[in-house]
């Protein structure tokens, strides 16, 4: 509005300040592009700040492993890149299962992942007992990823946001985007209280709210907003190094936990909870918390002795094929998307920013992202 | 009508009167209470093995305490009483409870929250040392367990409890080393005019003060606490007098509190709207004159709605239940509601008087030194909170919590939240309401992971 | 061990034997666990974050500052638990074979 228009123009406007948007802002600045990042609330308040904190590669779609590897490499360089480690600890990641059938799946996955450069150790029931004696006896096999680990999601996106700002990005919080229109070569982005911003390139990284935006550009996607059901225990002596998770075809059984070095055990999994997109809130259904309890006890019987001190949720977005949308718009030139990470965006977040920056800067990516084209849903509809 | 589901959380004066009102209307309320016996905190009962008289335990309040206890005892059989039960969440029209590791879900048509209050605290260097307790704790040790919290006790803070508890200790034969009130005596005298709606309370306060002075207990007003000294435990309290002289009182225990704060977590989880109360400088759930919250079917009563003390709690408990009955379409005596409403309105003036007599010392909270722990649970210092706010940016309290861990611990911010808000507001150069309030997160109290679901109730 | 709390009345209740850090002590029937411990000891536990020992704070189940470990690896809130004969509590966390691994 009254602001000088020069301050409101940049090479790229990023809409949505989660981890994807914040890391893209950072890496675009590293490539010398001017950036305005618009976030309706505060950086990293939704999915990015409220997820479990898994820095996990194992279990991902094999075709996503190159992206996950690139991210893993960034995770270990966070202190030199953004000035803090975000509590990332590569303390290992262990998935266990309760059935022979699932054990077979773990084994097959480990075999196939090898070709993608991910080394996993398959553990028998006995090996599980001796290496990780706190794991429940119902577990009959495990798959151990020694170089995966966990980090603090509350800290990570804000840290990228601050780093992007230090690199010269204009990071605008409390800047809710009302409309995006294309005028000539430029996009005009109108915000509620912060005036209008202009750029020839737009990257939409607004998570669950991105679907409404892509629809307005004629690219609707079947995006569903749900909330992860998270919780944390009281602090306990630090004795569980790896992330522990259940591998199961049943959502209800699929719980996971990690002990932070301060001692609390963070957990999540099972069914997801409801979201109110208008209020920007996601809720924990108490039934889900109660459902998690017996599953957590199967995974880590010792957890029965301790107490939950807090639960929370955040707004995540899911797509029917469980894959995100990453890449250019297929309708509007200069428009790019990275959203819908289906509850699995935290680990890949830093690389998503890196890859989107590369794509916007060079027009190409050094690793394949074709599987994440937004057009895949248009094709489905046509078919 | 019999299948109307009415639930009361809390069995203190407000909850008991609400339950009684429902029973009188022919309903059978479910009464959920964390305590193992009814009475709440102020009229907390001693264990069955104890023999002290009502007069010994409750002093001037003996009659009222007995009346409250007797009322609830007579209701047994007409209420579904669930003691030692934690209401840990409210979700989708149901209260979620936990008792002895068994979870229940209790759907309701009307819910009265009478959740009471806890001490309002601010950090003072050394306040985490063994030997330092909340004012309420000091009183509970004496009333419910016949123990003093130490051999030589300093009482520090402000509010009516400061004088009451100090007096109770002196009377029980404990050595009260000093009573240190951060409020000026002149403020208390000036507030008298506003407190005429409950002259009894004023008279009692003056009586306790006189009794303490008569026993040779030093009483200081307008003090600035400096430090609770000690290495492994409390050894002394250092403070500045009103004239600025520094003093040191040797002691092995401290009872501290700065009046009370409402327990509002359940109202928050039920998504009730909150308003900022200028007089008390704290947020509270919004209610109409009868106790109706912003969420349909939820009513607030007693100190959990606004801190007015036990007498007012009884009236607000009745009024909230009558409002619920009215909304459920049952006949209520409108005149009776009018009377209660007028009495409650008189209490408002009294409440402002209390707030003026015993003001929340925001400036002390804002001035807490960097090396002092603000968050007892997570051991986070004022300095860490300040540097988070300045270096990382925290325009509001929940962001400060996410980035610094202040308020993230077991107590859910009950004991650090007031001071953390002042410190953050101070760093940002804002009024305290501008930094918002800590959002309530379930569970209201820690929940055992060994829990199982109980049979449908 | 010096005591923290001082009993001022009601001392003719039935005695109960409990263990604190493996040492037998006498409590009185109707005591809370917090009172039973603090009439024999100066503290209940160590803060998890190396800032010293703690001895409870609110005594009404609100501050959660008095959670202790039992000898068999359970957690117990001392201010709201009533002592029972044979109760055995620790003022430090148990070893690894008790938590997180217990038979």
Explain what you see:
The complex is a heterotrimer of chains A (383), B (457) and C (103). Chain A has 383 residues and is of the alpha+beta class. Chain A has 2 domains: 179 residues, FAD/NAD(P)-binding domain; 140 residues, D-Amino Acid Oxidase, Chain A, domain 2 (2-Layer Sandwich). Chain A contains 11 helices and 23 strands. In chain A, the strands form 6 sheets. Chain A has an 8-stranded mixed β-sheet, sandwiched between helices. Chain A starts with 11 loop residues before the first strand and ends with a helix. The mean pLDDT of chain A is 96. Chain B is α/β, with parallel strands linked by helices and 457 residues long. Chain B folds into 3 domains: 208 residues, FAD/NAD(P)-binding domain, CATH 3.50.50.60; 138 residues, FAD/NAD(P)-binding domain; 74 residues, Orthogonal Bundle (Arc Repressor Mutant, subunit A), CATH 1.10.10. Chain B has 14 helices and 25 strands. In chain B, the strands form 7 sheets. Chain B has a 5-stranded parallel β-sheet with strand order 3-2-1-7-21, with helices on one face. The mean pLDDT of chain B is 95. Chain C has one domain: 2Fe-2S iron-sulphur cluster binding domain, sarcosine oxidase, alpha subunit, N-terminal domain (Ubiquitin-like (UB roll)), CATH 3.10.20. The longest helix of chain C is centred in the middle third of the chain and has 6 residues. The model of chain C has no long low-confidence stretch (mean pLDDT 96). Chains B and C meet through strand 9, helix 4 and strand 10 of B and strand 1 and strand 5 of C.
């Amino acid at each position: 509005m009254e602001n000088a228009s020069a301050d409101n123009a940049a090479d790229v406007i990023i809409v949505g300040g989660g981890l994807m948007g914040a890391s893209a802002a950072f890496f675009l600045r590293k490539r010398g592009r001017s950036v305005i990042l618009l976030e309706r609330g505060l950086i990293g308040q939704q999915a990015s700040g409220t997820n479990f904190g898994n820095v996990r590669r194992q279990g991902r779609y094999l075709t996503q492993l190159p992206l996950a590897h690139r991210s893993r490499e960034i995770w270990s360089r966070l202190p030199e890149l953004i000035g803090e480690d975000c509590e990332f600890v590569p303390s290992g990641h262990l998935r266990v299962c309760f059935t022979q059938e699932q054990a077979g799946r773990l084994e097959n996955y480990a075999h196939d992942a090898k070709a993608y450069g991910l080394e996993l150790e398959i553990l028998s029931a006995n090996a599980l007992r001796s290496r990780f004696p706190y794991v429940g006896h119902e577990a009959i096999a495990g798959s151990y990823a020694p170089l995966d680990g966990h980090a603090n999601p509350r800290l990570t996106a804000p840290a990228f946001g601050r780093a992007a700002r230090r690199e010269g990005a204009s990071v605008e919080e409390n800047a809710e985007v009302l409309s995006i229109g294309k005028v000539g070569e430029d996009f005009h982005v109108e915000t509620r209280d912060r005036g209008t911003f202009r750029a020839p390139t737009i990257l939409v990284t607004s998570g669950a709210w991105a679907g409404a935006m892509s629809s307005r550009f004629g690219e609707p996607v079947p995006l569903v907003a749900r909330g992860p059901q998270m919780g944390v225990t009281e602090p306990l002596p630090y004795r569980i190094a790896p992330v522990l998770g259940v591998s199961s075809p049943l959502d209800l059984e699929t719980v996971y936990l990690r002990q932070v070095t301060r001692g609390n055990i963070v957990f999540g999994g099972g069914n997801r909870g409801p979201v109110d997109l208008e209020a920007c809130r996601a809720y924990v259904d108490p039934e889900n918390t109660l459902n998690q309890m017996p599953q957590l006890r199967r995974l880590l019987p010792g957890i029965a002795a301790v107490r939950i001190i807090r639960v929370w949720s955040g707004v995540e977005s899911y797509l029917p094929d469980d894959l995100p949308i990453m890449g250019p718009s297929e309708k509007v030139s200069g428009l790019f998307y990275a959203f819908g990470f289906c509850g699995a965006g935290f680990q890949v977040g830093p690389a998503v920013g890196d890859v989107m920056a590369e794509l916007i800067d060079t027009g190409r990516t050094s690793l394949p992202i074709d599987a994440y084209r937004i057009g895949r849903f248009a094709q489905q509809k046509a078919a | 009508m019999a299948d109307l589901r009415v639930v009361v959380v809390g069995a203190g004066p407000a909850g008991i009167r609400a339950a009684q009102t429902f029973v009188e209307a022919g309903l059978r309320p479910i009464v959920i209470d964390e305590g193992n016996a009814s009475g709440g905190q102020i009229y907390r009962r001693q264990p069955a093995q104890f023999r002290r008289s009502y007069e010994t335990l409750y002093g001037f309040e003996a009659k009222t305490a007995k009346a409250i206890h007797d009322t609830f005892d007579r209701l047994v059989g007409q209420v579904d009483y669930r003691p030692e039960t934690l209401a840990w969440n409210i979700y989708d029209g149901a209260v979620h409870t936990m008792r002895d590791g068994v979870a229940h879900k209790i759907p309701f048509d009307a819910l009265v929250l009478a959740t009471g209050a806890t001490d309002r605290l601010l950090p003072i260097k050394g306040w985490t040392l063994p030997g330092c307790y909340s004012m309420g704790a000091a009183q509970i040790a004496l009333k419910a367990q016949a123990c003093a919290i130490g051999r030589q006790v300093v009482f520090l803070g402000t509010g009516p409890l400061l004088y009451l508890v100090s007096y109770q200790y002196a009377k029980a034969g404990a050595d009260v080393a000093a009573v240190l009130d951060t409020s000026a005596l002149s403020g208390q005298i000036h507030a008298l005019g506003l407190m005429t709606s409950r002259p009894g309370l004023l008279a009692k306060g003056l009586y306790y003060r006189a009794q303490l002075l008569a026993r040779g207990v030093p009483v200081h007003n307008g003090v600035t606490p400096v430090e609770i000294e000690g290495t492994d435990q409390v050894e002394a309290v250092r403070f500045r007098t009103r004239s600025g002289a520094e003093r040191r009182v040797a002691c092995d225990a401290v009872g501290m509190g700065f009046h009370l704060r409402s327990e509002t977590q359940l109202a928050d989880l039920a998504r009730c709207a909150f308003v900022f109360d200028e007089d008390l400088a704290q947020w509270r759930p919004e209610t109409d004159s009868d106790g109706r919250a912003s969420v349909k079917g939820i009513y607030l009563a007693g100190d959990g709605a606004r801190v007015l003390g036990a007498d007012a709690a009884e009236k607000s408990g009745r009024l909230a239940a009558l409002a619920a009955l009215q909304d459920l379409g049952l006949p209520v005596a409108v005149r009776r509601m009018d009377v209660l409403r007028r009495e409650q309105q008189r209490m408002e003036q009294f409440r402002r008087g209390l707030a003026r007599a015993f003001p929340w010392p925001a400036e002390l909270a804002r001035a807490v030194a960097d090396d002092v722990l603000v968050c007892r649970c997570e051991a986070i210092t004022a300095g860490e909170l300040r540097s988070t706010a300045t270096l990382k940016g925290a325009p509001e309290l929940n962001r400060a919590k996410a980035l610094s861990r202040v308020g993230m611990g077991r107590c859910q911010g009950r004991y650090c939240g007031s001071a953390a808000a002042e410190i953050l507001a101070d760093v940002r150069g804002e009024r305290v309401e501008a930094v918002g309030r800590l959002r309530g997160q379930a569970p209201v109290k820690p929940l055992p992971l060994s829990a199982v679901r109980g049979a449908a109730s | 061990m010096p005591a923290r709390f001082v009993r001022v009345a009601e001392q003719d209740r039935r005695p109960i034997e409990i263990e604190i850090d493996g040492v037998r002590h006498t409590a009185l029937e109707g005591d809370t666990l917090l009172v039973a411990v603090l009439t024999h000891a100066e503290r209940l536990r160590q803060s998890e974050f190396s800032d010293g020992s703690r001895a409870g704070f609110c005594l009404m189940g609100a501050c959660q500052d008095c959670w202790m470990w039992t000898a068999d690896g359970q957690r117990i809130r001392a201010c709201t638990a009533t002592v029972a004969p044979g109760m055995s509590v620790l003022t430090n966390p148990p070893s690894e074979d008790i938590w997180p691994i217990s038979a």
